[in-house]
Amino acid sequence: MLRFLVKKTLLALSTLLAVSVITFGMFFAVPNNPAELMCGDSKNVCSPERIEMIERRMGLDKPIATQYGDFMRGIFVGRTIGSGETARDCPAPCLGFSFRNDEPVSGIVGRTLPVTLSIVFGAAVVWLVLGLSIGMVSALRRGTVFDKVAVGTSLVGASMPILLFGPLLLIGLVYETGLLSYPRYTPITENPLAWASAMILPWFALGFLNSATYARLARAQMLETLSEDFVRTARAKGLPKIKVYGRHALRAAITPIITIAGLDLGAYLGGTVITETVFGFTGLGRTALNAALNLDMPIVMATVLLAAVFVVAANVLVDLLYAVVDPRVRLG
Amino acid sequence: METASTASATSGANPYLRVQDLRVRFRTEDGVVRAVDGISFAVERGRTLGIVGESGSGKSVTSMAVLGLHDPRRTEISGKIQVGGREIVGLADSECRKLRGRDMAMVFQDPLSALHPYYPVGRQIAEAYQVHHRGVGRRTARRRAIEMLDRVGIPQPARRVDEYPHEFSGGMRQRVMIAMALVNDPDLLVADEPTTALDVTVQAQILDLLADLQREFNSAIVLITHDLGVVSQVADDVLVMYAGRAVEHGSVEQVLRRPQHPYTWGLLASVPSLHGDADADLLPIAGNPPSLINLPPGCAFHPRCRWADENGDRSRTEVPELRPVTEAGHLVACHLPEAERQRRYAEEIASVGVAL
């Protein structure tokens, strides 16, 4: 088991390394000098000397490999950006300074990450609980009205984009009826109640739409598991239906769902751009999008790396969880 | 197994399992599948009935019906199944499940898929024990599981009780299944092809184990198999099934040494002979098993029977009844007169030689 864990972790770390190199390299493949962009607001004073000064300040005068090395080092132990009189101290984890407004990126991330985390984890609870329970019940009540309605609704949910559903919810619940107030993000540390009430709409929107996938998945897995031999054995032993379905069928049906749910979650943590935009939250996804459009490299680097960390961590966790649930995997 | 009398199970005094005119039909989109079409038999405690037939003959469906494992929404079951005096057909599932695992138990064909892969074997056996013994604690149930593993011949049971099914070999796994089936000392054991997934040497061990356990518990055993060798080794009585119907029924001695149905002749003749000529061709039964949705009219076997035309048109129009022959306890469902059958057998079949 330990070997398993070590192997997976090493693989994860090398993946992250590769991602960082590729993202860094990709940015420099774009034919744009960020120093020019930064000095572009006052054209008349944008002289070559000024550009050079900005480059030195941002540490862009060094060769690319050195820049990469500095960047990676900065994440773990902090570094000094720039040289000479423009040098600035950047404590660990140093993610640089925004090209746009010179704000420390770690601050930006610290501000926007909780928003995304709140949205995703809350919605995940909704979509897992809703989706799995509906799926399981559909499988047990296969062919009945419940099943048909559930499958139909999940088809609608799976095809509807949040781009449409979100505004529909806003119109229906906020603007027209006034049942809910317009969501305004409040950090949980400040006011948990306000935080929760602001989150209701995005949780429901994202959660409901995603639950469709899980309902269908759970239904299919459950149906397949119910036809397995060991379920027949459980019935032959004289077990009551609850135990047959709950203990024997459920546990076997859920394992592939764990994998998908974990990877899904990891991907969503990378940034729920559309949800954030629809509801006006400034989360990681939206920040990343804006930064990409503005060629604001430090923010792009930070968000891409963070997204990669989430995805890779989710992968490792899912593998581990699978080994915990399915003993046949452990000896490998 | 040696038996003193040659009386067949149907004439037994008080059989533990009695099946009368069992019919099982499945409603499907393509039509009604008549999986079992009028089967009757009885098994006493301490005796073994072997049910023989090809795939699709209805053997497994019969065993599942005995345990009440069919889905009532999709299956129509008629007839009578009495286990220890209790009627199973039409019994509510909540009542039936009290008998399942306690009075009657089943051993399935493939233990790797029949055991739950995620739980240790000890837990699965303990569960089978605890569901019928309310109030029994985990430790007691675990001790019982170890006891059963020991009884079925698994070495180091106290250590292996916490292992998972995939950590056992095929034969050991089947022993675990048997341990799980017998944990509550059931009076009826239905074994559905218990040795098909195992190699021959292990097969012999498992059959010996079943025989030993039967002696110890005095249980009635129904052994379903397509292997005549298995039948000859452990069964007291044999029921030959074809297309959901019984074609021959009698003691193992009668059916294997003095068979009177063309299908049984075909089965016996198709067994490769160890004593005969190694270059001789194998003798299959010509044709294929019939569709259970569109059974041939009259005798279900007539399209494949060499002597179907000797009865005029009867084989094509009239379903042969299972009727007793001169030998007590031996029943055959065939339109050919008994004298004819015996003559044919002696001339055409027995001379070829069967190594059983």
UniProtKB/TrEMBL annotation, chain A:
Compartments (UniProt record): Cell membrane
Family: Belongs to the binding-protein-dependent transport system permease family.
Keywords recorded for this protein, A-Z: Cell membrane, Membrane, Transmembrane, Transmembrane helix, Transport
Parts of the chain that traverse the membrane: 115-137, 149-175, 195-215, 249-269, 299-325
Protein name in the entry: ABC transporter permease
Organism: Plantactinospora alkalitolerans
Taxonomic superkingdom: Bacteria
Recorded topology in the membrane: Multi-pass membrane protein
UniProt cross-references to InterPro entries, sorted A to Z: BPD_transp_1_N (IPR045621), MetI-like (IPR000515), MetI-like_sf (IPR035906)
Ranges where the ABC transmembrane type-1 domain occurs: 113-322
Subcellular location, principal: membrane
From TrEMBL, chain B:
Record's subcellular location: Cell membrane
Topological relation to the membrane, as annotated: Peripheral membrane protein
Domain ABC transporter: 17-268
CDD domains xrefs: ABC_NikE_OppD_transporters
Gene Ontology molecular-function annotations: ATP binding
Major subcellular site: membrane
InterPro entries, A to Z: AAA+_ATPase, ABC_Ni/Peptide_Import, ABC_transporter-like_ATP-bd, ABC_transporter-like_CS, Oligopep_ABC_C, P-loop_NTPase
Alphabetical UniProt keywords: ATP-binding, Cell membrane, Membrane, Nucleotide-binding, Transport
UniProt cross-references to Gene3D superfamilies, sorted A to Z: P-loop containing nucleotide triphosphate hydrolases
Family of the protein in this entry: Belongs to the ABC transporter superfamily.
Protein name as catalogued: ABC transporter ATP-binding protein
Organism: Plantactinospora alkalitolerans
Lineage: Bacteria, Bacillati, Actinomycetota, Actinomycetes, Micromonosporales
